[in-house]
Design brief:
Layout (H helix, E strand, L loop, with lengths): L1 H4 L5 H10 L10 E10 L3 E8 L4 E6 L4 H9 L6 E4 L3 H10 L4 E4 L1 H19 L14 H10 L5 H13 L4 H8 L3 H6 L1
Parallel strand pairs: 1-4, 4-5
Antiparallel strand pairs: 1-2, 2-3
Helix pairs in contact: 3-4
């Protein structure tokens, strides 16, 4: 029967393929991350489930519809922790499918939300514009002295200046700013 429907397939090929397919033990999966992705942007989306402990894809659902996601999540009976994005659909589907499970926002959305709240806070605290003094008020002699102090004629001078500042416990970023070089150059020397 197989030979009639498929071109040149014998039992050994089918056995080899079936050995490579891992049988998924849905009841052993406890910590997952779900996220959506575009199959065709602005048209068709899917949801991927990744096991947090093994970092492997567990399953893919070709939808992000509430009912389908809820049914899909219920097929994994022992989910305890679910990491997700800010989607209201995922939030509701998780609550309905696994009410006792813990929902955690994924790393990207935690950082995004934290950044947004910090920006709002800073805007609220500093309602008025902060005026920065003009450069003419700064003593140009001091600036020139610093630049002259760390001016280098050869590459060896540069290396020595980097080592000198490192010995003084300056950070890589600070050394790069003082010497007017990149962080990579500081790290290289």
């Amino acid at each position: 029967m197989i030979k009639k429907n498929v071109v040149n397939v014998n039992r050994s090929i089918i056995c080899n393929i079936s050995k490579k397919i891992q049988i998924l033990a849905k009841d052993k999966i406890k910590k997952v991350c779900i996220d959506d992705f575009a199959i065709k942007k602005r048209n068709k989306y899917a949801t991927v489930m990744i096991d947090i402990e093994t970092r492997k894809i567990v399953d893919i659902l070709e939808s992000r519809d509430y009912e389908e996601v809820k049914r899909w999540l219920k097929s994994f009976p022992n989910l305890e922790l679910i990491s997700r994005d800010g989607s209201i659909v995922y939030n509701k589907a998780i609550k309905d499918a696994h009410p006792k499970s813990i929902q955690v926002s994924d790393r990207f959305h935690i950082l995004k939300n934290l950044t947004d709240y910090c920006k709002q806070y800073i805007k609220r605290i500093f309602k008025n514009k902060i005026e920065i003094g003009k450069l003419e008020n700064i003593n140009s002699g001091e600036t020139l002295q610093l630049k002259e102090k760390y001016k280098f004629k050869t590459k060896w001078d540069l290396i020595l200046k980097v080592k000198e500042l490192r010995d003084l416990k300056y950070k890589v970023n600070d050394i790069a700013s003082i010497l007017g070089i990149s962080n990579k150059t500081v790290i290289a020397h």
